[in-house]
Specification:
It contains twelve helices and twelve strands. The chain is of the alpha/beta class and 417 residues long. It folds into three domains: 155 residues, Globin-like; 99 residues, Elongation Factor Tu (Ef-tu), domain 3 (Beta Barrel), CATH 2.40.30.10; 125 residues, Rossmann fold (3-Layer(aba) Sandwich), CATH 3.40.50.80. The strands form two sheets. It has a six-stranded antiparallel sheet with strand order 4-3-6-1-2-5, with helices on one face. The protein binds flavin-adenine dinucleotide (FAD) and protoporphyrin IX containing FE (HEM). Flavin-adenine dinucleotide binds next to α4, β4, β5 and α9.
Amino acid sequence: MGADPFDAQKETIVLSETSTAVVSATLPAVRSHGEAITGRFYRRMFDAHPDLLDLFNRGNQATGQQKAALAAAVVAYAGHLTGDTAGTPWGQILDRIAHKHASLGITATQYPIVGRHLLAAVGDVLGDAVTPPVAAAWDEVYWLLACELIAREARLYAGAGVPEGGPVWRDWRVTGRVRETADVVSFTLAPADGGPPGDFVPGRYVSVAVDLGRGRGQQIRQYSLSGRPGADEWRITVKRVRGEGGAPPGLVSGHLHDRVDVGDTLRLSPAFGEVDATGDGGPLLLVSAGIGLTPAMAALAHLAEKDPDREVTLAHADRAASTHALRHELPALQERLPNLAVHLWYEDAAGAEPSPLKAHVTAGLVDPDRIPVTAGTAAHLCGPIAFMNLVRGSLVRRGVPAGRIAYEVFGPGMLPG
Ligand SMILES: Cc1cc2nc3c(=O)[nH]c(=O)nc-3n(C[C@H](O)[C@H](O)[C@H](O)COP(=O)(O)OP(=O)(O)OC[C@H]3O[C@@H](n4cnc5c(N)ncnc54)[C@H](O)[C@@H]3O)c2cc1C
Ligand code: HEM
Protein backbone atom coordinates (compact mmCIF):
# COMPACT_ATOMS: atom_id res chain seq x y z
CA MET A 1 0.00 0.00 0.00
CA GLY A 2 3.00 2.30 0.52
CA ALA A 3 3.27 5.37 2.73
CA ASP A 4 0.11 7.18 3.65
CA PRO A 5 0.35 10.59 1.95
CA PHE A 6 -2.29 11.96 4.26
CA ASP A 7 -0.04 11.26 7.25
CA ALA A 8 2.67 13.39 5.69
CA GLN A 9 0.24 16.31 5.61
CA LYS A 10 -1.23 15.67 9.05
CA GLU A 11 0.40 18.73 10.61
CA THR A 12 -1.28 21.05 8.12
CA ILE A 13 -4.82 19.70 8.39
CA VAL A 14 -6.14 20.91 11.73
CA LEU A 15 -9.43 22.05 13.11
CA SER A 16 -9.38 25.45 14.86
CA GLU A 17 -9.11 25.27 18.65
CA THR A 18 -12.64 26.59 19.20
CA SER A 19 -14.14 24.13 16.75
CA THR A 20 -12.16 21.22 18.24
CA ALA A 21 -13.80 21.78 21.63
CA VAL A 22 -17.27 22.12 20.11
CA VAL A 23 -16.89 19.08 17.83
CA SER A 24 -15.52 16.96 20.71
CA ALA A 25 -18.51 17.91 22.85
CA THR A 26 -21.09 17.21 20.13
CA LEU A 27 -19.43 14.19 18.46
CA PRO A 28 -21.24 11.59 20.62
CA ALA A 29 -24.66 13.08 19.70
CA VAL A 30 -23.80 13.33 15.99
CA ARG A 31 -22.33 9.82 16.04
CA SER A 32 -25.41 8.30 17.63
CA HIS A 33 -27.71 10.10 15.17
CA GLY A 34 -25.38 9.67 12.19
CA GLU A 35 -27.68 7.59 10.03
CA ALA A 36 -30.78 9.63 10.91
CA ILE A 37 -28.83 12.72 9.83
CA THR A 38 -27.71 11.26 6.51
CA GLY A 39 -31.19 9.80 5.88
CA ARG A 40 -32.65 13.27 6.38
CA PHE A 41 -29.83 14.73 4.26
CA TYR A 42 -30.64 12.55 1.26
CA ARG A 43 -34.35 13.34 1.42
CA ARG A 44 -33.61 17.09 1.58
CA MET A 45 -31.03 16.99 -1.18
CA PHE A 46 -33.12 14.90 -3.58
CA ASP A 47 -36.16 17.17 -2.98
CA ALA A 48 -34.07 20.19 -3.94
CA HIS A 49 -32.03 18.45 -6.70
CA PRO A 50 -34.05 15.55 -8.19
CA ASP A 51 -31.47 15.42 -11.01
CA LEU A 52 -28.98 13.97 -8.48
CA LEU A 53 -31.14 10.84 -8.10
CA ASP A 54 -29.56 9.55 -11.30
CA LEU A 55 -26.10 9.79 -9.73
CA PHE A 56 -26.82 7.77 -6.60
CA ASN A 57 -27.29 4.02 -6.37
CA ARG A 58 -30.97 3.34 -5.65
CA GLY A 59 -30.23 -0.15 -4.33
CA ASN A 60 -27.83 1.27 -1.74
CA GLN A 61 -30.36 3.96 -0.84
CA ALA A 62 -33.04 1.32 -0.32
CA THR A 63 -30.85 -0.98 1.75
CA GLY A 64 -29.32 1.92 3.75
CA GLN A 65 -25.74 1.04 2.82
CA GLN A 66 -24.89 4.43 1.36
CA LYS A 67 -26.33 6.27 4.36
CA ALA A 68 -24.08 4.21 6.59
CA ALA A 69 -21.00 4.88 4.43
CA LEU A 70 -21.42 8.67 4.30
CA ALA A 71 -22.29 9.00 7.98
CA ALA A 72 -19.40 6.77 8.98
CA ALA A 73 -16.95 8.84 6.89
CA VAL A 74 -17.97 12.23 8.29
CA VAL A 75 -18.13 11.04 11.89
CA ALA A 76 -14.85 9.16 11.64
CA TYR A 77 -13.16 12.18 10.11
CA ALA A 78 -14.43 14.42 12.93
CA GLY A 79 -13.06 11.85 15.39
CA HIS A 80 -9.75 11.90 13.55
CA LEU A 81 -9.52 15.71 13.68
CA THR A 82 -10.28 15.77 17.40
CA GLY A 83 -7.84 12.95 18.20
CA ASP A 84 -10.61 10.45 19.00
CA THR A 85 -9.74 7.73 16.49
CA ALA A 86 -5.96 7.36 16.37
CA GLY A 87 -4.63 4.82 13.91
CA THR A 88 -7.46 5.02 11.35
CA PRO A 89 -5.90 4.54 7.87
CA TRP A 90 -7.09 7.92 6.57
CA GLY A 91 -5.05 7.90 3.42
CA GLN A 92 -6.73 4.67 2.34
CA ILE A 93 -10.21 5.82 3.28
CA LEU A 94 -9.92 9.12 1.43
CA ASP A 95 -8.36 7.40 -1.57
CA ARG A 96 -11.21 4.91 -1.73
CA ILE A 97 -13.86 7.65 -1.62
CA ALA A 98 -11.98 9.85 -4.09
CA HIS A 99 -11.57 7.03 -6.61
CA LYS A 100 -15.26 6.13 -6.31
CA HIS A 101 -16.24 9.81 -6.70
CA ALA A 102 -13.94 10.24 -9.71
CA SER A 103 -15.46 7.21 -11.40
CA LEU A 104 -18.86 8.89 -10.98
CA GLY A 105 -17.67 12.25 -12.29
CA ILE A 106 -18.32 14.12 -9.00
CA THR A 107 -17.32 17.78 -9.41
CA ALA A 108 -16.05 20.39 -6.94
CA THR A 109 -19.20 22.43 -7.64
CA GLN A 110 -21.36 19.67 -6.12
CA TYR A 111 -19.65 19.86 -2.70
CA PRO A 112 -21.46 23.05 -1.58
CA ILE A 113 -24.79 21.34 -2.37
CA VAL A 114 -23.95 18.28 -0.26
CA GLY A 115 -22.49 20.50 2.49
CA ARG A 116 -25.55 22.74 2.65
CA HIS A 117 -28.03 19.87 2.91
CA LEU A 118 -25.87 17.81 5.28
CA LEU A 119 -25.50 20.68 7.75
CA ALA A 120 -29.19 21.54 7.48
CA ALA A 121 -29.97 17.88 8.23
CA VAL A 122 -27.78 18.03 11.37
CA GLY A 123 -29.95 20.97 12.46
CA ASP A 124 -33.19 19.11 11.61
CA VAL A 125 -32.21 16.05 13.66
CA LEU A 126 -30.42 17.61 16.63
CA GLY A 127 -32.73 20.66 16.90
CA ASP A 128 -31.83 23.37 19.42
CA ALA A 129 -28.56 21.69 20.29
CA VAL A 130 -27.23 23.08 17.00
CA THR A 131 -26.36 26.61 18.11
CA PRO A 132 -24.49 28.89 15.67
CA PRO A 133 -21.06 27.88 17.10
CA VAL A 134 -21.97 24.17 16.75
CA ALA A 135 -23.09 24.72 13.15
CA ALA A 136 -19.88 26.65 12.40
CA ALA A 137 -17.67 23.92 13.89
CA TRP A 138 -19.31 21.13 11.85
CA ASP A 139 -19.17 23.30 8.74
CA GLU A 140 -15.42 23.51 9.30
CA VAL A 141 -15.17 19.70 9.64
CA TYR A 142 -17.17 19.22 6.44
CA TRP A 143 -15.02 21.61 4.44
CA LEU A 144 -11.71 20.21 5.67
CA LEU A 145 -12.89 16.80 4.51
CA ALA A 146 -14.37 18.17 1.29
CA CYS A 147 -11.13 19.98 0.41
CA GLU A 148 -9.15 16.78 0.96
CA LEU A 149 -11.46 14.91 -1.40
CA ILE A 150 -11.65 17.69 -4.01
CA ALA A 151 -7.84 17.84 -4.16
CA ARG A 152 -7.51 14.08 -4.55
CA GLU A 153 -10.25 13.96 -7.16
CA ALA A 154 -8.61 16.79 -9.15
CA ARG A 155 -5.37 14.74 -9.25
CA LEU A 156 -7.27 11.65 -10.40
CA TYR A 157 -9.09 13.54 -13.17
CA ALA A 158 -5.82 15.08 -14.37
CA GLY A 159 -4.18 11.62 -14.38
CA ALA A 160 -7.07 10.19 -16.42
CA GLY A 161 -7.05 13.10 -18.88
CA VAL A 162 -10.52 14.28 -17.81
CA PRO A 163 -10.93 18.07 -18.20
CA GLU A 164 -11.78 19.99 -15.02
CA GLY A 165 -15.51 19.74 -14.41
CA GLY A 166 -15.86 16.63 -16.60
CA PRO A 167 -17.44 14.86 -18.28
CA VAL A 168 -15.94 11.49 -17.35
CA TRP A 169 -18.19 9.55 -19.68
CA ARG A 170 -17.07 8.06 -22.99
CA ASP A 171 -19.07 5.85 -25.35
CA TRP A 172 -17.84 2.28 -25.77
CA ARG A 173 -19.09 -0.25 -28.29
CA VAL A 174 -19.88 -3.78 -27.13
CA THR A 175 -17.68 -5.94 -29.34
CA GLY A 176 -18.38 -9.29 -27.70
CA ARG A 177 -20.69 -10.96 -25.24
CA VAL A 178 -19.89 -14.33 -23.68
CA ARG A 179 -22.10 -16.30 -21.33
CA GLU A 180 -19.65 -17.59 -18.72
CA THR A 181 -22.11 -19.37 -16.40
CA ALA A 182 -25.89 -19.37 -15.93
CA ASP A 183 -25.63 -16.05 -14.03
CA VAL A 184 -22.47 -14.45 -15.39
CA VAL A 185 -21.84 -12.69 -18.70
CA SER A 186 -18.64 -11.02 -19.97
CA PHE A 187 -18.72 -8.01 -22.28
CA THR A 188 -15.74 -6.88 -24.34
CA LEU A 189 -15.69 -3.20 -25.13
CA ALA A 190 -13.84 -0.83 -27.46
CA PRO A 191 -14.04 3.00 -27.55
CA ALA A 192 -16.79 3.99 -29.99
CA ASP A 193 -14.57 6.73 -31.47
CA GLY A 194 -12.06 4.11 -32.60
CA GLY A 195 -9.35 5.42 -30.27
CA PRO A 196 -7.20 3.18 -28.09
CA PRO A 197 -8.81 1.96 -24.84
CA GLY A 198 -5.74 2.89 -22.79
CA ASP A 199 -3.90 0.92 -20.15
CA PHE A 200 -4.99 0.13 -16.60
CA VAL A 201 -3.60 -1.39 -13.42
CA PRO A 202 -5.15 -4.78 -12.48
CA GLY A 203 -7.68 -4.11 -9.73
CA ARG A 204 -9.12 -1.00 -11.40
CA TYR A 205 -12.81 -0.70 -12.18
CA VAL A 206 -14.99 1.36 -14.48
CA SER A 207 -18.32 2.96 -13.72
CA VAL A 208 -20.98 1.97 -16.22
CA ALA A 209 -23.93 4.37 -16.66
CA VAL A 210 -27.08 2.84 -18.12
CA ASP A 211 -30.39 4.39 -19.08
CA LEU A 212 -32.95 2.00 -17.63
CA GLY A 213 -35.56 3.02 -20.20
CA ARG A 214 -39.33 3.57 -19.79
CA GLY A 215 -38.69 6.80 -17.84
CA ARG A 216 -36.89 4.94 -15.07
CA GLY A 217 -33.84 7.20 -15.26
CA GLN A 218 -30.16 6.39 -15.17
CA GLN A 219 -28.19 4.21 -12.80
CA ILE A 220 -24.44 3.83 -12.41
CA ARG A 221 -22.52 0.80 -11.14
CA GLN A 222 -18.88 -0.16 -10.94
CA TYR A 223 -17.37 -3.22 -12.63
CA SER A 224 -13.77 -4.38 -12.20
CA LEU A 225 -11.88 -4.87 -15.43
CA SER A 226 -11.45 -8.62 -15.83
CA GLY A 227 -9.32 -8.77 -18.98
CA ARG A 228 -5.65 -8.17 -19.73
CA PRO A 229 -4.38 -4.62 -19.27
CA GLY A 230 -2.95 -3.35 -22.56
CA ALA A 231 -5.31 -5.46 -24.69
CA ASP A 232 -7.11 -3.83 -27.64
CA GLU A 233 -10.41 -4.19 -25.79
CA TRP A 234 -11.47 -3.95 -22.19
CA ARG A 235 -13.62 -6.60 -20.55
CA ILE A 236 -16.10 -6.60 -17.69
CA THR A 237 -17.69 -9.74 -16.23
CA VAL A 238 -21.08 -9.20 -14.66
CA LYS A 239 -23.06 -11.43 -12.33
CA ARG A 240 -26.82 -11.13 -12.48
CA VAL A 241 -28.13 -10.18 -9.04
CA ARG A 242 -31.29 -12.20 -8.49
CA GLY A 243 -34.12 -10.90 -6.32
CA GLU A 244 -34.13 -13.02 -3.19
CA GLY A 245 -36.36 -13.08 -0.11
CA GLY A 246 -38.76 -10.49 -1.55
CA ALA A 247 -35.98 -8.07 -2.58
CA PRO A 248 -36.10 -6.87 -6.21
CA PRO A 249 -33.64 -8.17 -8.83
CA GLY A 250 -30.54 -6.06 -9.52
CA LEU A 251 -31.30 -3.08 -11.78
CA VAL A 252 -28.06 -2.66 -13.69
CA SER A 253 -26.83 -6.26 -13.77
CA GLY A 254 -30.32 -7.27 -14.99
CA HIS A 255 -30.25 -4.54 -17.63
CA LEU A 256 -26.81 -5.60 -18.88
CA HIS A 257 -27.83 -9.28 -19.00
CA ASP A 258 -31.23 -8.75 -20.62
CA ARG A 259 -30.77 -5.74 -22.88
CA VAL A 260 -27.14 -5.27 -23.87
CA ASP A 261 -25.66 -7.12 -26.82
CA VAL A 262 -22.90 -6.89 -29.41
CA GLY A 263 -23.10 -3.60 -31.34
CA ASP A 264 -24.76 -1.68 -28.48
CA THR A 265 -23.14 1.33 -26.85
CA LEU A 266 -22.32 1.64 -23.15
CA ARG A 267 -21.15 4.76 -21.30
CA LEU A 268 -18.03 4.10 -19.24
CA SER A 269 -15.82 6.18 -16.98
CA PRO A 270 -12.04 5.85 -17.19
CA ALA A 271 -10.53 3.11 -15.02
CA PHE A 272 -10.23 4.15 -11.38
CA GLY A 273 -9.54 2.31 -8.12
CA GLU A 274 -6.97 2.60 -5.37
CA VAL A 275 -5.94 -1.05 -5.32
CA ASP A 276 -3.20 -2.72 -7.38
CA ALA A 277 -4.06 -6.43 -7.43
CA THR A 278 -0.54 -7.51 -8.46
CA GLY A 279 1.22 -6.88 -5.14
CA ASP A 280 4.76 -5.57 -5.02
CA GLY A 281 6.93 -7.99 -6.97
CA GLY A 282 7.19 -10.73 -4.30
CA PRO A 283 4.95 -13.77 -3.80
CA LEU A 284 1.33 -12.90 -4.47
CA LEU A 285 -1.76 -14.47 -2.95
CA LEU A 286 -5.05 -13.80 -4.75
CA VAL A 287 -8.09 -14.81 -2.70
CA SER A 288 -11.55 -14.53 -4.21
CA ALA A 289 -15.09 -15.78 -3.83
CA GLY A 290 -17.79 -15.91 -6.49
CA ILE A 291 -17.79 -12.93 -8.86
CA GLY A 292 -14.98 -11.43 -6.73
CA LEU A 293 -12.59 -13.19 -9.09
CA THR A 294 -12.64 -10.38 -11.67
CA PRO A 295 -9.66 -8.34 -10.36
CA ALA A 296 -7.67 -11.56 -9.81
CA MET A 297 -8.22 -12.58 -13.45
CA ALA A 298 -6.88 -9.21 -14.65
CA ALA A 299 -3.88 -9.64 -12.33
CA LEU A 300 -3.13 -13.14 -13.65
CA ALA A 301 -3.43 -12.03 -17.29
CA HIS A 302 -1.09 -9.12 -16.58
CA LEU A 303 1.50 -11.23 -14.77
CA ALA A 304 1.41 -13.93 -17.47
CA GLU A 305 2.63 -11.28 -19.87
CA LYS A 306 4.86 -9.07 -17.73
CA ASP A 307 6.21 -11.23 -14.91
CA PRO A 308 5.66 -14.90 -15.79
CA ASP A 309 8.03 -16.26 -13.12
CA ARG A 310 6.11 -14.66 -10.24
CA GLU A 311 5.14 -16.99 -7.45
CA VAL A 312 1.34 -16.70 -7.38
CA THR A 313 -1.30 -18.58 -5.41
CA LEU A 314 -4.93 -18.31 -6.47
CA ALA A 315 -7.38 -19.40 -3.76
CA HIS A 316 -10.95 -19.23 -5.03
CA ALA A 317 -14.25 -20.24 -3.42
CA ASP A 318 -17.40 -20.89 -5.41
CA ARG A 319 -20.60 -22.86 -5.24
CA ALA A 320 -19.52 -25.37 -7.90
CA ALA A 321 -17.30 -25.67 -10.96
CA SER A 322 -20.35 -24.78 -13.06
CA THR A 323 -20.79 -21.41 -11.28
CA HIS A 324 -17.06 -20.60 -11.35
CA ALA A 325 -16.85 -17.95 -14.08
CA LEU A 326 -13.68 -17.72 -16.22
CA ARG A 327 -12.46 -21.05 -14.85
CA HIS A 328 -11.83 -22.13 -18.44
CA GLU A 329 -9.09 -19.46 -18.71
CA LEU A 330 -7.02 -20.90 -15.87
CA PRO A 331 -5.29 -23.78 -17.71
CA ALA A 332 -3.83 -21.41 -20.34
CA LEU A 333 -2.75 -19.01 -17.60
CA GLN A 334 -1.09 -21.91 -15.78
CA GLU A 335 0.85 -22.75 -18.95
CA ARG A 336 2.24 -19.23 -19.00
CA LEU A 337 2.70 -18.86 -15.23
CA PRO A 338 4.67 -21.96 -14.18
CA ASN A 339 4.68 -20.83 -10.51
CA LEU A 340 0.91 -20.42 -10.29
CA ALA A 341 -0.74 -22.72 -7.73
CA VAL A 342 -4.54 -22.96 -7.84
CA HIS A 343 -6.62 -23.92 -4.78
CA LEU A 344 -10.36 -24.20 -5.23
CA TRP A 345 -13.13 -24.68 -2.70
CA TYR A 346 -16.48 -25.76 -4.16
CA GLU A 347 -19.49 -26.18 -1.89
CA ASP A 348 -20.61 -28.82 -4.37
CA ALA A 349 -17.46 -30.44 -5.75
CA ALA A 350 -19.21 -33.15 -7.76
CA GLY A 351 -17.87 -33.17 -11.32
CA ALA A 352 -15.13 -30.66 -10.45
CA GLU A 353 -12.26 -32.82 -11.68
CA PRO A 354 -9.66 -30.23 -12.50
CA SER A 355 -8.22 -31.67 -15.73
CA PRO A 356 -6.81 -29.88 -17.74
CA LEU A 357 -6.56 -27.50 -14.82
CA LYS A 358 -3.96 -28.46 -12.22
CA ALA A 359 -5.66 -27.47 -8.99
CA HIS A 360 -6.22 -28.60 -5.40
CA VAL A 361 -9.98 -28.91 -5.16
CA THR A 362 -11.63 -29.15 -1.74
CA ALA A 363 -15.33 -29.83 -1.20
CA GLY A 364 -17.11 -27.44 1.13
CA LEU A 365 -16.70 -23.90 2.39
CA VAL A 366 -13.27 -22.35 2.36
CA ASP A 367 -11.20 -22.89 5.49
CA PRO A 368 -9.11 -19.68 5.63
CA ASP A 369 -6.39 -21.37 7.69
CA ARG A 370 -5.74 -23.77 4.81
CA ILE A 371 -5.03 -21.04 2.29
CA PRO A 372 -1.29 -21.44 1.71
CA VAL A 373 0.91 -18.52 2.77
CA THR A 374 4.60 -18.10 2.01
CA ALA A 375 7.05 -15.66 3.61
CA GLY A 376 6.89 -12.18 2.13
CA THR A 377 3.43 -12.69 0.60
CA ALA A 378 1.33 -9.73 -0.46
CA ALA A 379 -2.37 -10.62 -0.60
CA HIS A 380 -5.34 -9.30 -2.56
CA LEU A 381 -8.84 -10.30 -1.41
CA CYS A 382 -12.17 -9.84 -3.15
CA GLY A 383 -15.50 -11.32 -2.13
CA PRO A 384 -18.26 -10.83 0.42
CA ILE A 385 -17.19 -8.75 3.43
CA ALA A 386 -17.70 -11.61 5.93
CA PHE A 387 -15.52 -13.89 3.78
CA MET A 388 -12.77 -11.28 3.48
CA ASN A 389 -12.82 -10.60 7.23
CA LEU A 390 -12.31 -14.29 7.98
CA VAL A 391 -9.49 -14.57 5.46
CA ARG A 392 -7.78 -11.39 6.60
CA GLY A 393 -7.96 -12.51 10.25
CA SER A 394 -6.36 -15.82 9.37
CA LEU A 395 -3.60 -14.24 7.25
CA VAL A 396 -2.75 -11.73 9.99
CA ARG A 397 -2.63 -14.52 12.61
CA ARG A 398 -0.24 -16.39 10.34
CA GLY A 399 2.14 -13.44 10.06
CA VAL A 400 1.02 -11.49 6.97
CA PRO A 401 1.20 -7.79 7.97
CA ALA A 402 -2.21 -6.08 7.65
CA GLY A 403 -0.55 -3.44 5.44
CA ARG A 404 0.27 -6.15 2.86
CA ILE A 405 -3.34 -7.26 2.54
CA ALA A 406 -5.20 -5.26 -0.11
CA TYR A 407 -8.88 -5.85 -0.72
CA GLU A 408 -11.81 -4.77 -2.88
CA VAL A 409 -15.39 -4.46 -1.64
CA PHE A 410 -18.05 -4.78 -4.36
CA GLY A 411 -20.27 -2.21 -2.61
CA PRO A 412 -19.93 0.89 -0.45
CA GLY A 413 -17.60 0.81 2.53
CA MET A 414 -14.44 -0.85 3.71
CA LEU A 415 -13.54 -3.75 5.99
CA PRO A 416 -14.02 -2.83 9.64
CA GLY A 417 -10.91 -2.61 11.84
C1 LIG B 1 -15.34 -1.42 -7.09
C2 LIG B 1 -16.45 -2.36 -7.48
C3 LIG B 1 -16.21 -3.36 -8.42
C4 LIG B 1 -17.21 -4.24 -8.79
N1 LIG B 1 -16.95 -5.21 -9.72
C5 LIG B 1 -17.92 -6.07 -10.10
C6 LIG B 1 -17.65 -7.10 -11.07
O1 LIG B 1 -16.53 -7.23 -11.57
N2 LIG B 1 -18.69 -7.92 -11.43
C7 LIG B 1 -19.93 -7.80 -10.87
O2 LIG B 1 -20.82 -8.57 -11.25
N3 LIG B 1 -20.20 -6.86 -9.93
C8 LIG B 1 -19.23 -5.98 -9.56
N4 LIG B 1 -19.51 -5.00 -8.63
C9 LIG B 1 -20.89 -4.88 -8.11
C10 LIG B 1 -21.71 -4.00 -9.07
O3 LIG B 1 -21.23 -2.67 -9.06
C11 LIG B 1 -23.19 -3.91 -8.67
O4 LIG B 1 -23.28 -3.58 -7.32
C12 LIG B 1 -23.93 -5.22 -8.94
O5 LIG B 1 -23.89 -5.53 -10.33
C13 LIG B 1 -25.39 -5.09 -8.49
O6 LIG B 1 -25.97 -3.99 -9.12
P1 LIG B 1 -27.50 -4.04 -9.61
O7 LIG B 1 -27.83 -2.69 -10.13
O8 LIG B 1 -27.72 -5.20 -10.48
O9 LIG B 1 -28.25 -4.31 -8.26
P2 LIG B 1 -29.04 -3.22 -7.39
O10 LIG B 1 -30.26 -2.81 -8.09
O11 LIG B 1 -28.05 -2.18 -7.01
O12 LIG B 1 -29.42 -4.09 -6.12
C14 LIG B 1 -28.42 -4.49 -5.20
C15 LIG B 1 -29.07 -5.25 -4.06
O13 LIG B 1 -29.95 -4.37 -3.36
C16 LIG B 1 -31.20 -5.01 -3.21
N5 LIG B 1 -32.28 -3.99 -3.23
C17 LIG B 1 -32.50 -3.07 -4.19
N6 LIG B 1 -33.61 -2.35 -3.90
C18 LIG B 1 -34.10 -2.87 -2.74
C19 LIG B 1 -35.22 -2.58 -1.94
N7 LIG B 1 -36.06 -1.61 -2.27
N8 LIG B 1 -35.39 -3.33 -0.83
C20 LIG B 1 -34.54 -4.32 -0.48
N9 LIG B 1 -33.46 -4.63 -1.20
C21 LIG B 1 -33.24 -3.92 -2.31
C22 LIG B 1 -31.33 -5.93 -4.42
O14 LIG B 1 -32.25 -6.98 -4.19
C23 LIG B 1 -29.91 -6.44 -4.54
O15 LIG B 1 -29.68 -7.53 -3.69
C24 LIG B 1 -18.50 -4.12 -8.23
C25 LIG B 1 -18.75 -3.11 -7.28
C26 LIG B 1 -17.74 -2.24 -6.92
C27 LIG B 1 -18.03 -1.16 -5.92
C1 HEM C 1 -17.16 15.63 2.30
C2 HEM C 1 -18.07 15.21 1.44
C3 HEM C 1 -18.33 13.79 1.07
C4 HEM C 1 -18.08 12.64 1.77
C5 HEM C 1 -17.46 12.48 3.14
C6 HEM C 1 -18.53 11.54 0.95
C7 HEM C 1 -18.41 10.20 1.32
C8 HEM C 1 -18.74 9.15 0.51
C9 HEM C 1 -18.53 7.75 0.85
C10 HEM C 1 -17.93 7.24 2.14
C11 HEM C 1 -18.97 7.02 -0.19
C12 HEM C 1 -18.94 5.49 -0.30
C13 HEM C 1 -17.60 5.12 -0.93
C14 HEM C 1 -17.44 3.62 -1.09
O1 HEM C 1 -17.92 3.07 -2.08
O2 HEM C 1 -16.85 2.99 -0.22
C15 HEM C 1 -19.46 7.94 -1.20
C16 HEM C 1 -20.02 7.57 -2.40
C17 HEM C 1 -20.69 8.44 -3.21
N1 HEM C 1 -20.70 9.82 -3.14
FE1 HEM C 1 -19.82 10.93 -1.72
N2 HEM C 1 -19.05 12.03 -0.21
C18 HEM C 1 -18.95 13.40 -0.18
C19 HEM C 1 -19.35 14.28 -1.17
C20 HEM C 1 -20.07 13.91 -2.28
C21 HEM C 1 -20.59 14.83 -3.26
C22 HEM C 1 -20.35 16.33 -3.28
C23 HEM C 1 -21.30 14.09 -4.16
C24 HEM C 1 -22.06 14.62 -5.36
C25 HEM C 1 -23.31 14.97 -5.31
C26 HEM C 1 -21.20 12.70 -3.76
C27 HEM C 1 -21.76 11.63 -4.42
C28 HEM C 1 -21.50 10.31 -4.13
C29 HEM C 1 -22.05 9.21 -4.89
C30 HEM C 1 -22.99 9.32 -6.09
C31 HEM C 1 -21.54 8.03 -4.31
C32 HEM C 1 -21.84 6.59 -4.72
C33 HEM C 1 -23.15 6.27 -4.10
C34 HEM C 1 -23.55 4.85 -4.23
O3 HEM C 1 -22.90 4.07 -4.96
O4 HEM C 1 -24.55 4.53 -3.63
N3 HEM C 1 -20.45 12.64 -2.62
N4 HEM C 1 -19.30 9.22 -0.75
